[in-house]
Amino acid sequence: MRVRNVALTEGTIWKKLLIFALPLMLSNFLQQLYNTADLLIVGRFIGTEAQAAVGATGSLSNMLIGFFIGLSIGCAVVVAQMYGAEDEDGLYRMVHSSMSIALVSGVVLSVAGFFLSTPLLRLMNTPEEILADASVYLRIFFAGSIPSLLYNMGAGILRSVGDSKRPFYFLAVSSITNILLDLLFIAVFGWGVVGAAWATVISHIIAAVLVMMSLSKTDESYKLYLRDIAFHGPVGKRALKIGVPTGLQSVLISGSNVIIQTAVNGFGTLAVAGYAAAGRIDGFVWVTLNAVALAAMTFMGQNIGAGKIERAKKGLRQAIVLVVIVSGGLGAFFLIFAGPLAALFNPDPAVTFYIRQVMLYILSIYWLFGINEVIGGALRGVGRSMVPMLVTLICMSGFRVFWVYVILPLNRTFDFMLLAYPLSYILTIIVYLIYMKMVDWLPKREEIEPIEEIENIEANA
After folding, report:
1. For residue range 240-257, what is the model confidence (pLDDT) as tens digits?
2. pLDDT digits (tens, 9 = 90+) for 316-329
3. Dihedral angle sign, alpha carbons of residues 335, 341, 347, 351
4. pTM for the complete prediction?
5. pLDDT (0 to 100) of residue 34
6. Is 411 exposed, middle or buried, given 0-12, 13-18 or 19+ CB atoms closer than 10 A?
7. CB 67 within 8 A of CB 254
8. Which residues lie below 8 Å from residue 170, measured CB to CB, with a gap of 6+?
9. If we measure between CA atoms, which residue out of 316, 339, 338, 85 comes closest to residue 94?
């Protein structure tokens, strides 16, 4: 009996999307809250340089971890499709393949993060006065890659079967623990950025343990048996077909943000601190639109799996309306209170100036980015993950790199640099709309292959 799960293949579409997305929004809010707590507590108890050191790691850590999070999204899409198709055997194999992917990815990311952190920070022109602290923070952060990816993979499985509540509960516990440990390690023990990093790692471990226990103790068809964790070829390949382009898309976006972070570093430590703080603030809007995008992806996956093509099409339209209302409303709220929020992070007028400028250029048009995220999520949900990857490559990453290296030198000011964000959002949505108008992107019912048929084809090849 699926008492915890939201059945996305039946009922009023916008209500199901909202019911499913709300716990996701709260989960993402909590995750953003403890990311923000790191920066806020470090800034208040240690100082601007330490705050800049922690903030300067964000775009780089997102770039390195983004590919592996993309793999978890690919797994989640296949889980959703199999759950919608009521393919219990395929679901069993996908759950255990997912966890094997998370474990291997965690090991790779831990090793890569340890050796690449300092060289990459130097390559980004990180100010010398914050380089040592930023390197230490990143190395400890990546030491917690395995629990981080296990949580993300496990939470993705639960959301794919319609359960967005338990990941929220687990993240709530993790977030509260992170904030308390931040205060203990930084304010009481005086461990500085090392304390902030270890607080994050410990909170990731707690979240991973909770989600693994939940999957192991359930009696549903997606139950996890720890001894059975292994990669199953057919389902694993289907997940990787979606997950690899999704991961590359995340790397491309984060990579373009690394380029912009490099440009920000050129404006000095105060600009780095302000840019980092503004990123934490606008992150609260991003997490809401990301929740709607994940809801759209899961909705599309389940309904495509169930063969309900028209319902999937209606779901996308309603998800776009929902993301515009939510992200637009929150963006306006944060812009109205930009001044007090900036001062909360850092009372230095020079830093608050940079915070307010970043918020102005990004939040005023963030609802367009929300539409882009929902369309990208929908395309991944139907298995067409190459499209958002290519659009991101050209319209987000490519455009931002072009802006920083070709256009910005013509007018090297902080405000002119920030124009790369809204212009890339506008370009992306134009290309998406042209694609969806000209291409029949929704699969036909006969194109949806059960996993058993894939296995038979491969066995006879």
Report:
1. 887 788 778 777 777 787
2. 999 999 999 988 89
3. negative
4. 0.72
5. 66
6. exposed
7. no
8. 151, 155, 207, 210, 211, 214
9. 85
